[in-house]
Design a protein that fits this description.
About 70% of the residues lie in helices and about 10% in strands. With about 375 residues, it is an alpha/beta fold.
Length: about 375
């Protein structure tokens, strides 16, 4: 779709050429060339309405501006949108950006509220669309004959689960040691060091096991998902999939969501075992508790409800991390710099939502447990 080019005259008598819409690929329209060349005198270019742009569109624009210089005609940017500014700052026209001025009246309070509300509703619509499509392709489509890419799913389980076992095990082992040492510091004053097993067992299975695994995978897998899908979006691979009739949710998002949904609870279980072993080492070899007594106390303290609580939290955390990472990557706009921003935003947002969800589920299980 070519951009919309309109002209008007400013209060100073100068011609304003306003460009709105996408300035991408051969979306660059000869209309802009014709309008500029038919216009006499100096020109004010309003590019504030350009929604998307790429290097080909900028190259065509720069060629037009070069022709104006050859014709000894002056131009000035009236307004420049963020996508255009990002690319223009990389080329010799950067100096012209410093003189950009906006002749439009300042934005009023109601206009600002309306813009922010529209942006919020747009984001909300995109989130609902991505979540609905992801849940459909993960849990409904496979049972309605539309299938799922098993190879992609197994690849994600391997990358997000199997390859993360060493780092999760190491961190959970240290966490188990720390929990046992801190518990002994308080409990030995009351001669109740045997309850180290209770604190470590319940604390790991219900809380720290799922939470620490989620924190690790948020920085490791959530960032990777945002970067991978964001790169596909910027390089137009996702558009190519759609053009070929392939659903990006089926091929890109559903395998990642399901893969993390399997990997994170598994990592939490492995982390729990390793963490319990770390607590066992402190309790038996440092505090001096009998091995049989420590293991017996652990069996009494940790119930199936504790393990189920941890697994339920892990599954919820996996959905949050995967959906946030995929959402941030899927809606990237711009160049490589935007991929970095999306990756950082995915990690920060997923960590925030994981901690928020952990607090909610902890209170919920406490209330009804």
């Amino acid at each position: 779709m070519p951009p919309i080019v309109t002209t008007e005259t400013s209060a100073e008598g100068k011609v304003i050429i306003r460009v709105e819409g996408p300035l991408i690929l051969d979306g660059y329209s000869p209309d802009l060339n014709d309008v500029v060349k038919r216009t006499e005198g100096n020109i004010l270019l309003d590019l504030g309405g350009v929604t998307e742009v790429n290097t080909i569109g900028i190259a065509a624009l720069l060629e037009l501006l070069s022709e104006l210089k050859v014709m000894n005609r002056k131009f000035q940017f009236l307004s420049v949108s963020d996508p255009v500014r990002e690319l223009l700052e990389m080329v010799p026209q950067k100096a012209a950006l410093d003189q950009t001025r906006d002749l439009r009246p300042p934005e009023g309070i109601f206009e600002h509220i309306g813009d922010e509300t529209y942006i919020l509703l747009d984001h909300l619509t995109q989130v609902i669309n991505l979540v609905a499509n992801s849940l459909y392709w993960c849990f409904i489509a496979p049972f309605s004959g539309r299938g799922i890419k098993v190879n992609y799913f197994l690849q994600q389980v391997s990358r997000n689960g199997v390859e993360a076992i060493p780092i999760v095990s190491l961190i959970m082992f240290v966490v188990g040691l720390i929990m046992a040492l801190q518990a002994d510091y308080q409990l030995r004053r009351m001669g109740a060091s045997i309850y180290i097993a209770d604190l470590v067992g319940v604390g790991l299975t219900r809380e720290l096991g799922p939470l620490m695994a989620a924190v690790i995978l948020s920085g490791r897998s959530g960032a990777a998902m945002a970067a991978e899908i964001g790169t596909m979006r910027v390089t137009e691979e996702i558009d190519a999939l759609v053009t070929m009739g392939m659903n990006p949710f089926k091929f890109l998002i559903a395998p990642r969501v399901l893969g993390l949904l399997v990997a994170l609870p598994g990592l939490a279980l492995i982390g729990n075992v390793i963490g319990l072993f770390g607590g066992y080492l402190i309790g038996v070899f440092y505090v001096g508790l009998p091995s049989a007594a420590y293991l017996g106390e652990t069996r009494l303290a940790v119930s199936f409800a504790d393990i189920f609580t941890g697994l339920f939290k892990s599954a919820a955390f996996a959905m949050i991390i995967a959906l946030v990472g995929c959402y941030k990557g899927y809606h990237v706009k711009g160049g490589p710099q935007e991929i970095g921003k999306a990756t950082t935003s995915a990690v920060v947002l997923s960590l925030f939502l994981v901690v928020l969800a952990d607090g909610f589920f902890t209170y919920l299980f406490y209330l009804f447990g």
